[in-house]
Write a structure and sequence with these properties.
Elements (H helix, E strand, L loop, with lengths): L2 H38 L4 H20 L2 H16 L2 H24 L1 H11 L4 H14 L3 H16 L4 H24 L4 H27 L8 H4 L2 H33 L3 H38 L2 H37 L3 H33 L3 H22 L5 H26 L5
Helix pairs in contact: 1-2, 1-8, 1-12, 1-13, 2-6, 3-4, 3-7, 3-11, 3-12, 4-7, 6-9, 7-8, 7-9, 8-9, 11-12, 11-15, 11-16, 12-13, 12-14, 13-14, 14-16, 15-16
Length: 440
């Protein structure tokens, strides 16, 4: 009878962590809608195209640095579990130093990055011109954007999910307000949207650092320089982030390859796949929130050396992840055609999207396990295993499946993507069974 309250508490704790992350994720597409709206009401369509292209470039650039968030979460959660208040500060300081250094590197390499990006994107002269203007301004947000990744990871590791919620709401809502002020209010164009993003990121850093100071009041300690510049700890963080970076590059490549192969089949297939990928993105908001909860709870259990808490956290997040995935599958089965109609009014695109909708109904049930294990591996700081399973899934499963299924057209492309997601879940399950007995 004594165990019942414990399980009730762990269920509540999962949603205390997952809920704010899901809500904060929902503010991201809202910003995209406002960017589209303010550009879409200007005098020429190339303004909208320029911002879309520029935003796409930054999505890929910043997504590649997602290891700053993930690596910081696991290390912080383990220090939190050990109640090592000095290391809590040191992890954050190392992450911020690394974020600023990488941000400065991006600024130094901005010309070759821009040249390579626009060379890969076949855009009109006007779109490229204004896209370059957008890029030249927004690139200055890089140090702040990367520091915000580190702050979000640290807040999650501290079991403070309201921190990322506050931070992302400040960034995205201030960005929206500045968009509306600069563009309709002051008559700016793509430069207004770009400056809004830059200012919002630095405002986020200021609010994030204020939250850090507030949260650390309950964890007395000092910012010891020798601890911050501890070489073994720095090396551990670097190797952790390096492996997560390779894993993220494989993920970016896989989705970019999927988009490119869809484009080769014609504009209608490309458009239909783009509509359906919104279903995958929506699902990711829910499953990512639960994965973040797994990161924090698993990392804390590892730091505390509590095997019972480890098992309970994994089981609880696993149950909720499965239920949420099932909910998404039911949603897409019952309301998929309505959602497609909401996203596009082009009859030809709707018809093609309906044909491939069954893949999206299956996708949550296939993908959920990779999201769950991502959270577990990050909390346990098993980045090497994350890297290896992603390499196997990409090179030995996704690409061969695409090659074998080419005769099926776009169905073959979706089948290859499902093979990729299934392979991630299966290889991570195998890897988890190998390292789990060695964690404690």
């Amino acid at each position: 009878m004594r165990m019942k309250p414990t399980y009730t508490l762990i269920h509540a704790r999962v949603w205390q962590l997952a809920g704010p992350m899901i809500l904060s994720n929902l503010s991201i597409p809202l910003l995209g809608l406002v960017d589209t709206a303010v550009m879409g009401h200007l005098s020429a369509p190339y303004y909208l195209g320029a911002v879309a292209v520029g935003a796409l470039i930054f999505s890929f650039v910043f997504w590649g640095f997602g290891f700053l968030r993930m690596g910081t979460t696991g290390l912080t959660a383990q220090a939190f579990g050990r109640e090592d208040h000095h290391e809590l500060r040191a992890v954050l300081a190392r992450a911020i130093v690394l974020a600023v250094a990488l941000g400065a590197l991006v600024l130094l390499l901005q010309r070759p990055i821009a040249a390579a990006a626009f060379a890969l994107i076949d855009a009109s002269a006007e779109v490229e011109r204004y896209g370059a203007e957008y890029f030249a301004i927004r690139i200055w947000s890089a140090p702040a954007a990367l520091v915000n990744y580190a702050l979000i990871g640290w807040f999650l590791g501290m079991q403070r999910a309201q921190g990322p919620l506050i931070l992302l709401l400040v960034i995205n809502l201030s960005n929206i307000v500045l968009d509306l002020w600069f563009v309709p209010g002051l008559g700016m164009t793509v430069d207004g949207v770009a400056w809004a993003s830059v200012i919002a990121e630095y405002l986020g850093v200021a609010v994030g650092l204020w939250l850090v100071r507030r949260y650390l009041r309950g964890h007395p300690g000092t910012w010891r320089g020798m601890c911050i510049w501890d070489w073994p700890r720095l090396r551990e963080m670097w190797l952790l982030n390096q492996n997560i970076f390779i894993r993220t590059l494989c993920l970016i490549f896989s989705f970019a390859f999927f988009t490119a192969q869809g484009a080769r089949q014609g504009d209608l297939i490309l458009a239909a796949n783009a509509v359906l990928m919104n279903f995958q993105t929506l699902m990711a908001y829910g499953l990512d929130g639960l994965a973040h909860a797994a990161e924090a709870l698993v990392g804390r259990a590892v730091g505390q050396r509590r095997h019972d808490e480890w098992r309970r956290a994994i089981a609880t997040v696993g149950v909720w992840s499965g239920l949420v995935a099932l909910g998404f599958s039911l949603l897409y089965w019952l309301a998929g055609e309505w959602l497609i109609a909401l996203l596009t009014d082009q009859a030809a695109v709707r018809e093609i999207a309906h044909e491939y909708l069954p893949w999206l109904i299956l996708a949550p049930l296939i993908s959920v396990w990779s999201y769950l294990f991502d959270g577990i591996f990050i909390g346990a700081t098993r980045a090497r295993e994350m890297r290896n399973t992603m390499l196997v899934s990409t090179l030995l499963c996704f690409l061969p499946a695409w090659y074998l299924f080419q005769g099926w057209g776009n169905h073959g492309l979706w089948a290859a993507l499902m093979v990729f997601m299934a392979a991630r879940g299966l290889t991570m399950t195998w890897s988890f069974c190998r390292f789990a007995p060695q964690v404690f």
